Amino acid sequence: MVKFTKQFEGQLVPEWKEAFVDYWQLKKDIKKIRRDSTSSVSKPRQNGSLTNTLVSSMHKLPFFGNHCRDREFIHVHSKLGSTRSEGVLYETELLEQFDHTEAASAFFALLDLQLNKVNEFYRKKEKEFLDRGECLEKQLHILVELKTALKDQNKIIANSSHHDSKDEDSISGIISCDEESSRGMTDQDLQEEENLAEDLENYGVQFKDIPRSEELGKERPNMEGEQSFSHCISNCNEKKLKIRIPLTNPTRTFSYLLWEDLINQSSKKQNGHGRKVHINKTKLHHAEKMIRGALIELYKGLGYLKTYRNLNMLAFAKILKKFDKVTNKQVLPIYLKVVETSYFNSSNKITKLADEIEEIFMKQFTEDDRRKAMKYLKPTQREVSHVVTFFIGLFTGCFIAFFVGYVMMAHTTGTYGPQTNTIYMETVYPLLSMFSLLFLHFFLYGCNIFMWRKTRINYSFIFELSPTRELKYRDVFLICTMSMTVVVGVLFVHLSLMEKGYSYSQVELIPGVLLLAFLVLLLCPINIIYKSSRYRLLSVIRNIILSPLYKVVMLDFFMADQLCSQVPMLRDLEYVGCYYITGSYKTQDYRYCVHTKNYRDLAYAVSFLPYYWRAMQCARRWLDEGETGHLINLGKYVSAMLAAGAKVAYEKEKSVGWLCVVVVISSIATVYQLYWDFVKDWGLLQMNSKNPWLRNELILRKKFLYFFSMGLNVVLRLAWLQSVLHYKFGGIDYRLTGLFLAALEVIRRGQWNFYRLENEHLNNAGKFRAVKMVPLPFHEVDEQD
């Protein structure tokens, strides 16, 4: 049977952990009472101990026991708090002396504190969700009215013989108080305008041009500075509604710029008499998606609040039962009655709101299909199959067998020894190196997922992953073992064929076909081998490549950081691609992609690209959020690009001057990066922390792990010294040395990932942020005439 402590810790909302009952401290207080009781029993009994023993024994008899249960050992007083958010505060008074009154008083003082804390947090979150629900109700009302008006407008256009096809699927309105503006209009045009006004009469709106940049909505003050599609809908009550669709991708950005230009041209043609603006079906569709996403997040938050209520109620019952068992007093019925009538357990507002959301979602988004609605509102996680575990073991065994065979054959033929096969090392080895680094990184990501789940770090929420489609750590391990089995198996066959006397021209296509097969599988549109995850990866890579144009989210810049540690893998990919695309494999002319100027420059550009992409993401975040810290972070990646450029120049010149430049710039960049790793990304080295040189909140219990990780990060950050010192490890080929150093950087990134998400999770927990705040499309703004 699972202990309640583990059940409690496993089911609580991680970001709200500090707001839950401190069950662990209450257990410590009870253990203290038990220890004191044990020590008092072991002491010599004083005068009157026989009487006390007789009285306590009589209380255990049925007749006296009932009388004991009817007695009240405590009385819980309630009083109004000083602020409205506190509500009713509870304070317990001990009516009878306990064996250890001080310890019991401390226990009930802490218990009262926890009950008041739970009530206050529940009241605060309930108000937040109720306000959000009210706002979403207004948003949905506006959306329904606009969709109805759009439908009616399409009927008018369909019945009209004089209309432009460009006006279909849009609502249009004329703003004008000048009576002369209606002159020259035909009766049919006037009738269409009257019909449109009648359609919108209940809503009382007119459509204006795009608002000025200083006009801000009330609903999302935290999104100031974010660019968006904007339209204004104003009514006769001097209120104005602004439609904002965030510019999260290039299509919306360019559409917004084109739309603004068309509006300006239209306003010039009409000479200020009125402006005609369309709210088309596409923009309403975007608004509908935003509102639907906001409803789903709100429903998730209500579910978390229900869990919060139930777990806390259970925790109070469990801890009071333990107290009764230790003290032989019946306080459970008395205090639990107070808990049951307290605000967090008696309020049913969130239950009503959740039922309303279900009904609204069914009606508006799933055509009264409850099962479909609940798939959106309560997505079920994929069950872990034991078949996955079986295949992980199977492919691990196959990989080890192929790898041992490959190493033995390579050793026998001297492939990696002092007398290396140059053609093999220049043409096939880069492919093995590329796949090794890629799937080592993927394997470490699986280890990260395992540790995040074990330490209750909510990585799914941070990365905004779908619970029905996200990869579990077993899935990641299966992909790694299966892929490396295929890679090593194919290379084993390739090396075996070469040993049997097949010429290079006969077997040279095998590595290229292997790479092509992986690329085809990555792009395969058929729903096989984790299609949703593959396409999500492709979309993230697209966002990174076009990073200045896409709004940057956590998963995007996290992935871009991974690419910064995979520069050797990217250079191998560029070289292998050049080797096969240019047809060099036909003549085994591996020098062509190394010595040709254009391809050599491309290889250098590949070294810069990850840092450039990451710098552009910092620039975009600075434009969106306006925080100076993003500019400072941008400087870190600029310093990394300068260090990479200095190394490239040193490789060309091999002069003492360039060596000094490399050492100076690389040292500055390393110090810059280490500071950002420890202070910003990991949140460590806080001087005033209760944990010296760390931070106040730590997820790992053993503090030395943080210091060890910082030391390891420093050592692995200095791996660039090998590019300057050119130290040779015996007779090992320099390519193997390069692979080893590249693998060390991947390992450094793997441990960096854990602490980076730990810090992000603690930031969310510090703000009690457990659900995503989805931006809303319609914003009400006061307009002063």
Automatic annotation (TrEMBL):
Q: Which residues form the SPX domain?
A: 2-337
Q: Which organism is it from?
A: Mikania micrantha
User: What does UniProt list as this organism's lineage?
Assistant: Eukaryota, Viridiplantae, Streptophyta, Embryophyta, Tracheophyta
How is this protein positioned relative to the membrane? Multi-pass membrane protein
Domain EXS: from-to ranges: 594-785
Location in the cell reads: Endomembrane system
Q: Which residues form a coiled coil?
A: none
UniProt-listed InterPro entries:
EXS_C, PHO1, PHO1_SPX, SPX_dom
Instruction: Give TM segment ranges.
Output: 384-408, 428-452, 473-497, 509-530, 656-675, 704-725
* GO terms, biological process: cellular response to phosphate starvation; phosphate ion transport
Q: What would be one Gene Ontology cellular-component term for the protein?
A: membrane
What keywords does the record list, in alphabetical order? Membrane, Phosphate transport, Transmembrane, Transmembrane helix, Transport
Domain of life, per UniProt, equals Eukaryota
Q: Where is the signal peptide?
A: none
Q: Which family does it belong to?
A: Belongs to the SYG1 (TC 2.A.94) family.
What is the name attached to this protein's record?
A: SPX domain-containing protein
